[in-house]
UniProtKB/TrEMBL annotation, chain A:
Family: Belongs to the binding-protein-dependent transport system permease family.
UniProt-listed SUPFAM superfamilies: MetI-like
Descriptive protein name: ABC transporter permease
Gene source species: Geochorda subterranea
Parts forming coiled coils: none
From TrEMBL, chain B:
PROSITE patterns, alphabetized: ABC_TM1
Transmembrane segments: 7-28, 110-133, 154-175, 195-215, 256-277, 297-323
Entry superkingdom: Bacteria
Gene source species: Geochorda subterranea
Protein name: ABC transporter permease
Length: 276, 335
């Protein structure tokens, strides 16, 4: 019972955040960069969540920021899961030299902290578009997925239905597409939720260091402004609390979604000692 | 299977990884369009240097930073310098040397992170183990709480605590490593001031670490509690405390690896905490370097982070090789 409630809560939270970021900017129709009031003005009927250091509407910024963060997260999530799945299945299914080489590459990349590569890449890019951010976060975060997928592919290729397919003369690529990947889809969906969450948080961390997307507002960029203009120390809660809470909700809901999906697939995780 | 071969194999492997990290560290900042020396000289020229003098300054800087030589030679020079512990000269704090700037910031970061990681690990594991063992409602609540704690990004926790306990209820100072006007010394007054500034950043890191460790320990312990050897031991009439001792010893193993890997993120794991609290560590230094386009300093910091992680991973691997011969065999391809 508890389990399905957890799933429902996390799904509702995720849907809420996505709707806020995707529908919000359309429904409100306001320009996020328009100056609507005095700087750091409190909540009023012009700006329900008050204004930021330039007098721009926090609520509008928050909706656009959520959208940008989700876009970067989704792009990075898709890229890293795809890369991880391709590298992992190829290594696990073909084995031998392919496996050695692909896993060698993966392991080197895992040992070098991806945040370092991210910082260096972001510094090297003069202007960082939303797409560029999604791309660089995506291409630095696939190795863990690749390793997990490889383990799954190795065990899947020893299953009976794969042998049947081999005996009936199916090609390697055909077996991967028809007999291996479908069995990993649930796992890949779970990996995507985690990659999305971590990409949103990574974007925010980069943005706060001054390496966020140029010319767009994301949740991290909002926090960077709040820190630069001392919103926290001045007690202007509406300038930093909404993006902070939004980031925490995105991360928490996706982790909870992942954990409840995990419980659906691994019934053992449901209870403690007494259940056994 | 030879332990020596295993260690050599790992050493080779991590040398390769280090080399790749050094290569990336060297190449990526050089992809920047334009020449960093231009920016630096432009700043000097605002001071009134003109004509021939400007040209001489420019040339001097080019040579100093080695940017006039071909890439290959630059890389060899870079490797040689790094090996001798020379990370170059900072652009923005010229003529301060990068290694000195890092040397000043590093103790702050380590003093903040090391206790936070250790305390968080200890408390988190105890809580996770208790939750797994007791199960039921206690577990359900603790699990959600721990998951919530661990999924709050550490910098969000820092911002929330800063606001709650330094601004709304001003119990703690809101910025810095110690008060303005105090000179660092080991006097009681200074140490108390230091601890006062230390409390909030420390708390923000510990809370998140406890959450993460508790979630990990709980699932490991539940997995072990359901293992066949537990049922068998119970059926054989082995006493409960004894079974539990086995269970938690087994559940601890991955957690020990987790601790070692967390220690690897010592330098680069919480850069933004320092930013939020204006704490004078590596994160604060990196932020300044990025906002001032100080490439040598950025490179120095990222190298420092990478080396810390590689070193921790290497030590974990070696320790595991000593503890568990099966791992040695698998890694060397002999199953």
């Amino acid at each position: 019972m508890l389990r399905s409630r957890r799933l429902a809560v996390s799904l509702a939270l995720v849907c809420g955040v996505v709707a806020f970021g995707m529908l919000g900017p359309v429904v409100s129709g306001r320009d996020p960069y328009a100056i609507v009031d005095m700087p750091f003005a409190g909540p009023s009927r012009y700006a329900w969540l008050g204004t930021d250091n330039f007098g721009r509407d926090e609520l509008t910024l928050l909706m656009h920021g959520t959208r940008t963060s989700l876009q970067i997260g989704a792009m990075a999530g898709v890229i890293s899961v795809l890369l991880g799945a391709v590298v992992g299945t190829a290594a696990g299914f073909y084995g031998g030299l392919t496996d050695e080489m692909l896993m060698g590459l993966t392991n080197v990349l895992i040992t070098i902290p991806s945040f370092v590569i991210l910082i260096l890449l972001s510094v090297a890019l003069k202007s960082r578009s939303v797409q560029a951010m999604g791309l660089i976060i995506g291409i630095t975060s696939w190795p863990w997925t690749a390793r997990a997928v490889r383990a799954q592919a190795t065990s899947l290729k020893a299953r009976e239905h794969v042998w049947v397919a081999r005996l009936s003369g199916a090609s390697g690529a055909g077996i991967i597409v028809r007999d291996i990947v479908p069995y990993m889809l649930s796992y890949l969906a779970m990996a995507f939720t985690l990659q999305l969450a971590s990409a949103v948080l990574t974007e925010a961390a980069l943005a706060m260091l001054g390496l966020g997307p140029s010319n767009s507002v994301s949740l991290g960029v909002m926090l960077q402004w709040a820190l630069l203009w001392e919103a926290v120390r001045q007690g202007v809660w509406w300038a930093f609390l909404p993006p902070t809470v939004a980031l925490a909700v995105v991360a928490f809901s996706l982790q909870l979604l992942n954990a409840s999906l995990d419980e659906v697939y691994n019934p053992r995780l449901r209870g403690g000692v007494d259940a056994s | 299977m030879g332990l020596r071969r295993y260690v050599l194999f790992k050493l080779l492997w991590y040398t390769l990884a280090l080399f790749v990290a050094l290569g990336l560290n060297f190449v990526l900042p050089r992809l920047i369009p334009g020449n960093p020396v231009d920016a630096l000289v432009a700043r000097f020229l605002q001071g009134g240097l003109q004509g021939q003098a400007a040209g001489r300054v420019y040339q001097a800087f080019l040579e100093e930073f080695g940017l006039d030589r071909p890439m290959g030679q630059q890389f060899v020079a870079y490797l040689g310098n790094v090996l001798r512990g020379n990370l170059g000269v900072s652009f923005s704090y010229y003529p301060a040397r990068v290694q000195d700037l890092i040397g000043q910031a590093l103790p702050w970061t380590v003093a903040l992170q090391l206790p936070a990681i250790l305390v968080g690990w200890l408390l988190g594991n105890v809580l996770g183990a208790v939750a797994a063992y007791r199960g039921g409602r206690f577990d359900g609540r603790l699990f959600v709480a721990a998951l919530a704690l661990s999924s709050i990004p550490y910098y969000a926790m820092a911002i929330l605590l800063l606001y709650a306990l330094a601004v709304a209820v001003p119990l703690f100072p809101s910025a810095g490593g110690y008060s303005f006007g105090l000179t660092p010394s080991w006097s009681t007054a200074f140490v108390l001031d230091l601890l006062h500034h230390y409390a909030l950043p420390f708390l923000s890191l510990v809370l998140v670490a406890i959450g993460g460790q508790a979630v990990g320990m709980r699932s490991m312990a539940i997995y072990e509690l359901g293992a066949d050897y537990v049922r068998y031991s119970r059926a054989m009439g082995v006493t409960q405390p004894r079974v539990l001792r086995y269970v938690f010893r087994n559940a601890m193993l991955p957690q020990v690896t987790g601790l070692a890997l967390a220690l690897g993120t010592l330098v680069g794991g919480a850069l933004i905490t320092e930013l939020v609290f204006s704490y004078p560590g590596i994160g604060y230094l990196l932020f300044n370097a990025i906002s001032l386009n100080d490439y040598p300093l950025i490179q120095g910091v990222t190298l420092c982070i990478a080396v810390a992680v590689l070193l921790a991973n290497f030590l974990v691997d070696i320790a595991y090789g000593f503890i568990d011969p099966r791992i040695r065999a698998v890694q060397l391809g002999e199953r």
